[in-house]
Structures are given as structure tokens and as C-alpha cells.
């Protein structure tokens, strides 16, 4: 992957902007806008929560055409469980952005993240939109990335270039995470902080190829991270492809699609890891690699189950090498797990084989568990498949922070 | 339900004992024994974790006959993920108890709870067994209940009487809980603290009727509580029915079975609530009632999902009435949830209807969220079924406690 600068404004034809309008009490940015100077092939994956914000419902309708040209997003308020008024607010935002950009409302996608159940300060947003549009710039990606942050500390922005045929194609993305992160996103389906990721590319790509690229790249990145096992109502990844690179069009089941997916996957994985490193209250970054599972589905289920265990995450917080909790969490997954075949490594130390513990040097294990970056490998020994999930510890700070989120 | 005294030793023909042998470092009891003076009809439900302690595997074998006469249990060590040596230890304990009780090893059931992956101090246990048997008494139930406690603060012991035909039949039970509590137990299946519950009854009951009674009673009690969403490797509920009440034998699909199940269910629910009230670090007791679900399965799934939400549980800890997290957790369940039809009450205050919030008096809601006992009702509005789950808050104390469990 060849990294480049400029985030979502690095692909040709894209501009971005971000600003503060007052949805958030603090002076941090709370609005983001991404715009392509020409219509795009567009696709999205969305939360599979049955309680969905108006933005999720509206985007699905807008994406039926497979076409879009801009993404408007706010942080500080998820505009979810806000009844019909919430839907009207989303539509007013879309109308205003479309009017200012001089495009059809149908070509606008919308996103939101923040508290659930509170009406948006709609006048503040509508009043700010002309300035937001005015500020669109080839250098606006970082400001847009700031505009979607909630409890994030770090701006999440990446971009890379890959060759399709003899033409360079650029992909840029911004994202946010931090809490209520346990995404299970699907192409046309239904699931709250919320994971948002907006992708731009100047690649020329056929509609079905774009959808399958997005779906594949999400599966082994965002859908394999967990911060608190709570699935959001607003999770979405949106991609806009405007074709400005003038490459030979990427078709389904092609070598070029494989290259595009590889670059997209690498960008998503980088963003997914940034989210976990920036998770609410987290003091550790933990990689759970599952090997030799019966199927890819099993590998993913076991990796996500171990990564989700509150007890393991408390042990990680306390640097208490309680590996029994790894074994128990693996066994609770809906997958083929045979304790007699399972091997568990923590760092480079084998801790479990033949159905029992094999640790000789507890001090070495203590040292590994005290690190800020911990890698756990669960070798199921029953098949050919693997998957890696990413998680963090569960800290007293996480509990304190989330016990006073709304008030 | 007519409550009676004596716990597991209240049914005719049963004795119990408990003592300290040294599995636990503290001087608290760590061994428990229950014995019937005659062979019993026996049944058990076990964790559905694929990583199972030797005691779970052995009991399933012993219960194939449907017959047993005694239950031996230790706390302080789960004897799980202890390899073949762990199995040998379980069998040595069974052999020694059988020898002292002068019954067949096949008639002994065994249980354990505590840390995973550590070999039992087997000599201490074997040496103590003669005294444990010696101390069997009609007044030994509370000592036995103490013997299975780990992080529990409260002894969990109940007993009741019901009339079968014209004869009184007694049912007694002891249990423990406190952490790693998210049971999904099934009759002959596979799932870690661990939930243990031992039931005795002097009812005469046919084998299949006993199994179906146990299965039914567990579904709407133990299987609907959650403390930390971590499923144990050692969960089990065992029941011994010795027929000493000389009632007309309870048959499958009979009115008498319904009466027996009603009493058993009431006892299990009382114990399940005791477990949640005594949960690690818990400061609140929370009831999640789901009404008007499409099916009983849906009602249970939504109730468990809301009860399991880390974010909601943090909000409960902080008395922060963040009802959006209730809606999001309901929507993430694998069930028919329509946000436009869902109504949510917290205490007696309607907070959600028509897809949005309806709270007028936030101070009243704050007061209800500050209580020690909170009832949340999620009315799905799509069908006839209901279920109630029980949970606690997620406290900084829970995290602190479980970050230094092993060391």
C-alpha cells in the first residue's frame, strides 16, 4: 500500500470541509461535508441494529440508485429515536446541502453520531451549511474528520494509491469510533458511539464491484473490532467513487478488483486499529488471532467472542494473566472449539495445550500481560481458517466515563 | 409457594455438610456434600460452553442412567482446563466419596467453581472427605451452601413445599453466583464464576418428567440472568429426587408436574434474583421486562440483550437515565423489534413511544434511575409473548475486582 496525504480530498475531484456549529457544547468541530465535483458510484454498509437512526434509513433509500455526490455528517447527536421529527430534520439538512451544492437531494448521503433520543438543534445546523459549503477545499479532510469525532482523541484519516491498469487510483477515508463499538454492518441491513467511515476514491468502478469491495473490506476490519460489545444504531461506512482517475473500469471478479479490495482493506484495517487504540478508557491494545478454525465464520466468531469478554478485558486492565478467561470465552462462541485441540499463546508464550495450562515461567507471562500491546493467539487445531479481532481492556475509566455520558 | 426451612436437607432422606479443607486460602468453607439415604432419580443441565470442566463431562456420563445419590462440590478452583490430570482428580474425589458413603462411584455427581487452569490441591480434598461425610446432617444445608460460595457475600438457600395428590412434597436448593454469570444451560449440552445450583426433593417423579421440569424451570430463571455476559465452563444445576414423600408418582404432561414445575420455578427465580443482588461489584438490581414480543424466544432475546448492555449498565451505575442505550440494546437482539411500535417505561414513566422520546419530567426520571431497584419495561408491540431478565449495573468496583482475580 502506497500511503498518500490528503485524506478524503486526496482522490481527484473531491473536496471536504468541517466546522463548529453548536451541536456540541464544546468548541470542537461538529459538522463535516465531503463533495465530489461530479456524480459518483456509491455504496454503503449499515448497522444491523433494528433500531436505526433516520440517516441510516434515508441513505438506504438514496443508495438504491447506486449514485451519490456528497456526504453531510454531524457529531454530538445521533438523531436516533427522535420520531418523525428526527426524519424531518434529516431531510431539511439534505435539502439545504443539496440547494447550496446545486445538486439533487437524492445525491446527498447523511450521517450522525452522538447521544440517542435528543432532537437536533436544527437551526444551528441549517444556518451553518452555507459556510460549510463555502469552505469546501482540497485541504479540508482533517477538518471534516474532526467534525465527526465524539469521544475520539485522535483524528482518523488515511489515504493510499494503487495502480489499476496503467493509471494511479487514489482512495481516501476518514473515520471515528471510541465507544458503542461492536459493529456488524451489512450491505442492506440493519445495528450505536457509532462507527462512521467515509471513503472517497477517484477510481472508475462498476456498481456491483464497488458493493462487493466494500462488503469484503468491512468484514475483516471494522466488523472484527469491539470496544464494548454494544452495537450502535448509526454505524455506517459510505463510499463515493467518481471515476476521475480515468482508469479502465474495475469490473466484478477481476484482478483489478482484487487490487482495489486489497488497498481498501488495508485502509480499513488501519482505521479499525486506530479506533481501538483510541477507545474510551482503553489503556491497552489487544490483538486476538484465531488460527486453524474449521471455517472463516468460526474463526471470526471465536476471535470476536474472546475480544468481547468483559472478564478477560478486566484482567487485561489489571495485567492479571488469567488465561482461563481466554479459553472460556473461546468455548462460548458458536463455533467448533475442542479444548483438547486448542492451543493458546500469549505473546510468544504457549499457555494452553492438551486441555490444560503449560506455563512454566509465570513472571515472563506477567511481563507480557503488563505490556501496552498484547497479542493472543488461539489455535483451534480443527481446520484451515483464521481471523484476527482487535479489542482493548475494560478500565475503571471506561465505566466512570460512560456512567455520566448524557448528563 | 409455601416456604420451609432446611434448604437441601429439608426434603425427607437428605443430609448435607460443608467444611474448609484448604482449596481456598481464606478460612471460608470450600467443600460441600449432599447425600440421599436412598438412590434418586437425577437430572442436570449444564453450560453450553464448548470448554467444559471435567465435572461437567463426568456428570453427563453419570446421568445417562438417570440415577444418582450424592453431590460433592468444591469452591476456589474450577478444575477446568487442567488436562487429563484434572479428570483424574475429579475421579479420585468421586471414588473417595463413594467409598466413604458406601455407594457406587456412578451414583456420585461432582461440581467445582473458581479459577480456571489450576490443578486442585487434591490431597487436601481427599484427606477432608471422611470428615465431610461424618458431618452429614439434617442441619447441614447452610454449611454446604457456604462451601460452594466464591465471590458471593450471601448464602443462597431456599426450600418450599407443595402438595402432590394428598401428600406434601418438599424441594430444597442451594446455589452460588457472583461473576462470570451469563448462563445458557441445556439438558445435555455444553457453556464459566459459575452458576451452581443443587436441588433436592423427596418427590417421587418419573425420569422424563424430572428432566422436563428442570429444563422448564431453568429457562425462565437462571438462563435469564446476566452479570457480566461471560459464560462459564462450569455452570450446572443438578436435581436429586428420592421419592421419600411417597406421593403418587409425578408423570409427564400431568397436572401434578405443572404444580411441581411451578414450585421449582419459584425457587429458581428466588435464587436467580439472590445471585444478581449479590453480583460482583453490583450497586443496583435491575429488572428488564419485555412484553408483547412476537415469540417467547424473541422476548427472551431482547430481555437478555438489554440486560447485557455494558453501556446501559454503566449508565445505571452512574444513575444517568440514558434510555437511548435501552433502545439500542433492544434493537441489537436477534428478534423482531420495530422502533415505531416499541414503548419503553423506566419505573412508571413512559420514556419512548412512536419512535422517539416522550419524557417531560427529567427530574422524576433522574430520581427513578437513582434507586437501588430499577424496573425497565420494553413493550415491543408486535405479539403476545413476554419474558423478564435480571441484571445489575457495571461498576468501577467490578472492574477493579476482576482486574486482580487470579493474582
Automatic annotation (TrEMBL), chains A, B:
Pfam families on file: ArgJ
Highest taxon listed in the record's lineage: Bacteria
CDD domains per UniProt: OAT
Record site feature (Involved in the stabilization of negative charge on the oxyanion by the formation of the oxyanion hole), residues: 113-114
Gene Ontology BP annotations: L-arginine biosynthetic process; ornithine biosynthetic process
Active site residues of this protein: 194
Cleavable signal peptide: none
Keyword entries, A-Z: Acyltransferase, Amino-acid biosynthesis, Arginine biosynthesis, Autocatalytic cleavage, Cytoplasm, Multifunctional enzyme, Transferase
Transferase found in the keyword field: yes
Catalytic activity: L-glutamate + acetyl-CoA = N-acetyl-L-glutamate + CoA + H(+); N(2)-acetyl-L-ornithine + L-glutamate = N-acetyl-L-glutamate + L-ornithine
Gene3D superfamilies to which the protein is assigned, alphabetical: arginine biosynthesis bifunctional protein suprefamily, ArgJ beta chain, C-terminal domain, L-amino peptidase D-ALA esterase/amidase
Subcellular location: Cytoplasm
Metabolic or biological pathway: Amino-acid biosynthesis; L-arginine biosynthesis; N(2)-acetyl-L-ornithine from L-glutamate: step 1/4; Amino-acid biosynthesis; L-arginine biosynthesis; L-ornithine and N-acetyl-L-glutamate from L-glutamate and N(2)-acetyl-L-ornithine (cyclic): step 1/1
Molecular-function GO terms, alphabetical: L-glutamate N-acetyltransferase activity; L-glutamate N-acetyltransferase activity, acting on acetyl-L-ornithine as donor
Binding sites annotated in the UniProt record for substrate: 150, 176, 194, 280, 402, 407
Classification via PANTHER family: ARGININE BIOSYNTHESIS BIFUNCTIONAL PROTEIN ARGJ, ARGININE BIOSYNTHESIS BIFUNCTIONAL PROTEIN ARGJ, MITOCHONDRIAL
This protein's name: Arginine biosynthesis bifunctional protein ArgJ
Gene source species: Candidatus Kaiserbacteria bacterium RIFCSPLOWO2_01_FULL_54_13
Amino acid at each position: 500500500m502506497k500511503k498518500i496525504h490528503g485524506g478524503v480530498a486526496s482522490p481527484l475531484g473531491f473536496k471536504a470541509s468541517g466546522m463548529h456549529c453548536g451541536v456540541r457544547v464544546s468548541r470542537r468541530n461538529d459538522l463535516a461535508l465531503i463533495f465530489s465535483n461530479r456524480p459518483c458510484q456509491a455504496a454503503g454498509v449499515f448497522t444491523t441494529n433494528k433500531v436505526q437512526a433516520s440517516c441510516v434509513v434515508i441513505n438506504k433509500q438514496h443508495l438504491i440508485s447506486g449514485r451519490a455526490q456528497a456526504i453531510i455528517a454531524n457529531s454530538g447527536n445521533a438523531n436516533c429515536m427522535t420520531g418523525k421529527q428526527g426524519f424531518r430534520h434529516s431531510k431539511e439538512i439534505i435539502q439545504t446541502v443539496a440547494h447550496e451544492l446545486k445538486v439533487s437531494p437524492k445525491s446527498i448521503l447523511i450521517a450522525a453520531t452522538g447521544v440517542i433520543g435528543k432532537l437536533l438543534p436544527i437551526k444551528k445546523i441549517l444556518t451553518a451549511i452555507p459556510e460549510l459549503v463555502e469552505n469546501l477545499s482540497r485541504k479540508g479532510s482533517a477538518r471534516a474528520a474532526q467534525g465527526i469525532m465524539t469521544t475520539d482523541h485522535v483524528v482518523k484519516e488515511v489515504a493510499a494509491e494503487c495502480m489499476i491498469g496503467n493509471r494511479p487510483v487514489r482512495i481516501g477515508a476518514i473515520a471515528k469510533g471510541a465507544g458503542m463499538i461492536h459493529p456488524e454492518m451489512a450491505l442492506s441491513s440493519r445495528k450505536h458511539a457509532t462507527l462512521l467511515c467515509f471513503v472517497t476514491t477517484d477510481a472508475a468502478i462498476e456498481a456491483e464491484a464497488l458493493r462487493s469491495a466494500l462488503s469484503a473490506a468491512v468484514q475483516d476490519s471494522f466488523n472484527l473490532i469491539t470496544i464494548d460489545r454494544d452495537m450502535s444504531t448509526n454505524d455506517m461506512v459510505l463510499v463515493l467513487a467518481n471515476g476521475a482517475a480515468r482508469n479502465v473500469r474495475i469490473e466484478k471478479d477481476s484482478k483489478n478488483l482484487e487490487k482495489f479490495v486489497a488497498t481498501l482493506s488495508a485502509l480499513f484495517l488501519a482505521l479499525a486499529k486506530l479506533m481501538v487504540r483510541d477507545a474510551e478508557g482503553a489503556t491497552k491494545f489487544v490483538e486476538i488471532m484465531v488460527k486453524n478454525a474449521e471455517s472463516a465464520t468460526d474463526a471470526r466468531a471465536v476471535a470476536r467472542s474472546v475480544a468481547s469478554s468483559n472478564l478477560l478485558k478486566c484482567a487485561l486492565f489489571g495485567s492479571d494473566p488469567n488465561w482461563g478467561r481466554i479459553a472460556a470465552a473461546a468455548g462460548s462462541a458458536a463455533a467448533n472449539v475442542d479444548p483438547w485441540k486448542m492451543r493458546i499463546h500469549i505473546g510468544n508464550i504457549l499457555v494452553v495445550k492438551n486441555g490444560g495450562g503449560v506455563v512454566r515461567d509465570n513472571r515472563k507471562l506477567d511481563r507480557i500481560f503488563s505490556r501496552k500491546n498484547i497479542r493472543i493467539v488461539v489455535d483451534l487445531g480443527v481446520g484451515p481458517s483464521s481471523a484476527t479481532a482487535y479489542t482493548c481492556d475494560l478500565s475503571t475509566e471506561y465505566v466512570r466515563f460512560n456512567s455520566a455520558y448524557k448528563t
